[in-house]
Amino acid sequence: MDALLKPRNAGEVEEAVRWAAAEEQPLEVIGTGSKRGLGHPVQTAHVLDLSALAGVETYEPAELVLTVKAGTPIAEIEALVEENGQELSFEPMDYGPLLGRPAGGGTIGGVLAANLAGPRRIKSGAARDHVLGMEAVSGRGEQFVSGGKVVKNVTGYDLPRALCGSFGTLAVTTSATLKVNPKPETTATLEISGLSDEDAVTALCRAMGSSAEVSGAAHLPAGLWGETARTVLRLEGFQASVDYRFQSLNSLLSGFGPVRRLEDGDSRPLWAGIRDAAPHVGKAGTVWRVSVAPTAGPGVVAQLKEKLPLSAFYDWSGGLVWICFEDGELHEAELRAAVAASGGGHATLVRATGAVAASVPVFQPQPEALAALSRRLKEQFDPNGILNPGRMVTGV
Amino acid sequence: MPAPDPQVLERRREIVSALQAIVPGEGVIHDEREMRAYETDALTAYRQMPLIVVLPETVDQVSAVLKYCHKHDIKVVPRGAGTSLSGGALPLQDGVLLSMMKFNQVLDIDFENRAVVVQPGVTNLGITRAVEHEGFYYAPDPSSQIACSIGGNIAENSGGVHCLKYGLTTNNVLGMEVVLINGEVVRLGGKHLDSEGYDLMALMTGSEGLLGVVTEVTVRILQKPETARALLIGFPTSEDGGRCVADVIGAGIIPGGMEMMDKPAIHAAEDFVNAGYPRDVEALLIVELDGPEAEVDYLIGRVEEIARANKASHIRISESEEERLTFWAGRKAAFPAVGRISPDYLCMDGTIPRRELPKVLARMRELADKHNLGVANVFHAGDGNLHPLILYDANKPGELEAAEAFGADILRLCVEVGGVLTGEHGVGIEKRDLMTDMFTEADLKQQQRVKCAFDDKHLLNPGKVFPVLHRCAELGKMHVHKGQLPFPDIPRF
């Protein structure tokens, strides 16, 4: 009997998980399924669909705190906070277009489960940096609360933060409390054209090491978004401040190449595109997301380019590299070797044809002691292994 | 605290020899006189001599010590600089006290990647000292930053005055190396961001020494803001002050620091350092704006307007660095200033939703009358983190107990209005027994299951954080009820 379980409240989530735990029936946990393509596919008879568990519980702009049910569409949340002059400053990327789905999908539960972030990660952090509290149901079928509804709290282990990025394999989040921030008054972008990858990352790191409070630092090599290479730095805030910082950044980077300024209207779509990996959208090929130390980014790409056909661009000051192997092959071994040779980091397979993807680890393999600790944590939350089995790693 | 294990106490001599074989030289302290320095941390009302003190110097030694203790069921209390205000480093009679203060080296300064790798015994301020020649600093700034260690900051997820804008320890740590109780060494994160797999750094940060021993830390450093200026604002009522704070944030302004003091704290500070604080106000707010000059000058004007609109009776704006530091001098000296007017004080640490401030202050005055003790409040106004200082005299019979009861009432009040027991000092032993006021048994059991994944014998820092210790075997049991597929009225496909 295959079932789609669609609980309407946290009590029903608990009931469903308790049943699954007792019957040892694995569940695929989804919001709207917009990021189903991330991680290993979960093949279970039963699906726990949280999309009916939606709505804002409390929103207090003056406290900078928002509590929402897990199935609330992220687009709805972003619209609500924008109405109040605020934003989710971790700027969660929208995987839809890259994964061949419509833009604007997804729920807050999914955003947290995948620990999404955007270009502002380097200044303001990822989803995990903005979670204050959670209500969840463990794989044991027990509801628990952790964290709080205030912005400063160290009472007990930080489970809400730890559940971020766990892809629903530890517990089913039913509601989350997030920290929101004022939305900047305006945005401007400083663009330098024609730089090599190495020079671009040097410029980006120099800007990040200045007091200009850069909130986005990306490099789009020639052909990825325009004919010439574009090295872009984002400044946000009050108009007077943005103008002032633009000038200081301009003098700091004057030796690198020709500079132009993009105003608010041109900046926003550019950064949304960088956030959503637009240069690789609608293009054939295997896509990897690589996180390394910023200065190591160009080295990873250079090593691979010697022998493989690829296109790549950089976010996070050079530390986030989106690589597309145009031949559609995985090249997992070569990529992981290049990352290791550049000081280490993480490589995640984001897009590939299903059959091929199943043959390699999607996420960065862990050393044994760490993998064993992760398995022990999984056992403590979900002893029967019923939540999204195998989504991250076999056995987790 | 958990009852001491008589078998461990009996085997003390044997344990000393075993530890000496691992950490040679003067790294094992077992003389009672020398151990005295470790019998308490900054929660000085509690004292306990440890079984033995060990000061390893290498990761291999830490690993071997923990492996030995794990094998022989010996408890371990990790300790950094011993500045915990919640008793996090209080020793156990039958436990080895593991001091990490010989791990005091800065290992790697990487300005290009804005990352610094240090050993855990390096002080919080020591990190800034190592990078300030290039204009950089490490942002979290707990008030004990001159003494507290970065390893301790991780254990407590320390905050400070600037964390509303720059985040807590957890938001500023990029990587760590951790030795588990079984002696295994794991590395988490690094100079890159957002490692995949479970976010064990999130669990380690704020785990109060219960999950593992940190042996190396990578932190993010930032370029110092170009400038900083402050406003000193007095209000006739705490309601006016609270509304001003809400309006500043409502205007889209996140100040670098925003601190409030109540009348008793203002008077104590002014008597001590003559910072020029007005005495005829009920609430005093220090708002510091930092960043590029153009921004700071603009925002100073905005905050001044907001303060006037909220009936501020007194406004001063710093016109020089010296003046800015004078504004802060009273706030920074608030604890010793209170120490001057009272033989002893307890520093509490709850967080509340800011809108509840006037109500909480009023209730706190009632509680002060009930317990017949004085209280002065300093308050990280931006994030709702209260630090009530309860005044008492430990030499008067019953006053410590009264002060603790008063403190517990304040923290219960914080929880009652939607807040939490601790904003930055940790639970430790101080707030351990109040955990059931904030969490249900199911909540606490799930937390303890995390402990079981890291330390299934409960050997690391037991007796802290959790009021009742459940055996991991008991916590692991599943109570299953086989039955029907739930809520059959729901459509399924």
From TrEMBL, chain A:
Residues 1-183 form the FAD-binding PCMH-type domain. SUPFAM superfamilies: FAD-binding/transporter-associated domain-like (SSF56176), FAD-linked oxidases, C-terminal domain (SSF55103). It comes from the Bacteria. It holds the Pfam family FAD-oxidase_C. Its cofactor is FAD. InterPro entries: FAD-bd_oxidored_4_C, FAD-bd_PCMH, FAD-bd_PCMH-like_sf, FAD-bd_PCMH_sub2, FAD-linked_Oxase-like_C, Oxid_FAD_bind_N, Vanillyl_alc_oxidase_C-sub2. Coiled coil: none annotated. Keywords: FAD, Flavoprotein, Oxidoreductase. This is Glycolate oxidase FAD binding subunit. The lineage of its organism: Bacteria, Pseudomonadati, Pseudomonadota, Alphaproteobacteria, Hyphomicrobiales.
Automatic annotation (TrEMBL), chain B:
Transmembrane segments: none annotated. The keyword tRNA processing does not apply. This is Glycolate oxidase. Keywords: FAD, Flavoprotein, Oxidoreductase. SUPFAM superfamilies: FAD-binding/transporter-associated domain-like, FAD-linked oxidases, C-terminal domain. PANTHER family: GLYCOLATE OXIDASE SUBUNIT GLCD. Its cofactor is FAD. Residues 46-224 form the FAD-binding PCMH-type domain. It holds the Pfam family FAD-oxidase_C.
